[in-house]
Amino acid sequence: MHPRTLARQFAATLAELRETWEVQYWPGGKLPTPVQQNAPQPAETGPQPAPRLPVVDEIRTQAKAWTPAMKLDYLRERNIGDCQRCGLARTRSKIVFGVGNPEAKIVFVGEAPGADEDRQGEPFVGRAGAKLTAWIIALGLTRDDVYIANVLKCRPPGNRDPKPEEVDKCSPFLRAQIRAIAPRVIVALGTHAAMLLSGREEMTLAAMRGAELSYDVEDGAGGTRRIPIVVTDHPAFVLRQEGTEGGALSTERLVMQDLRRALELTQARDDDARAPE
Question: Are 185 and 97 in contact (CB under 8 A)?
Fold first, then answer.
């Protein structure tokens, strides 16, 4: 086969993969191989249609009937697996996927796992996790009522900020988690999570707090549904305010205002869903 023909077919296959990447429901093992046709190769007169990936199409069709829990399990076991997509795979102890109710109405999203999370494989289990749990309880909920995840699934060494290439590799999994759960509201904990989810990289956390931000997710019928985003401080930031002028108490008051707003939005959207057409 002519090298230019091979290159064109390879580019078409990559385009197909990009189109389905956000779905995240790949069969286990290697990515499916495009079906080879026995028909003569078309003349080299322009772009050719991308080869179909029947295995991917079949998985996508099956996934429409899956429960949120089934989608999350498939995502964790078959898509992420023993992820080696970025350099964090060499320094992590465990992948920190997410925890909580697969049908949660509120999803909390942090930045990245810390040392405790890296050891245990569960998000928000250290001091910051205890603080987040206290906030959730103050809302009249438990951790089993909500879902908790991070932008990154592996801990950056020394708890440094995520690098752009790490976010690019890992954020599709968070997006797939949100699609599977389809929450009423997303609470972004900290600047990095807020910027990624809202797409408002030019805004500070103070500017995003209280602003009307949203995240678009597929509604299953070919359209999109907007999920409100409530931005608040990361629990670790609040803990660092202890002993400072003003202290953690005033910061925590602001956080609880944000979280009560998230709860009110959840209840309002529940009311809208129950309202007759």
Answer: no
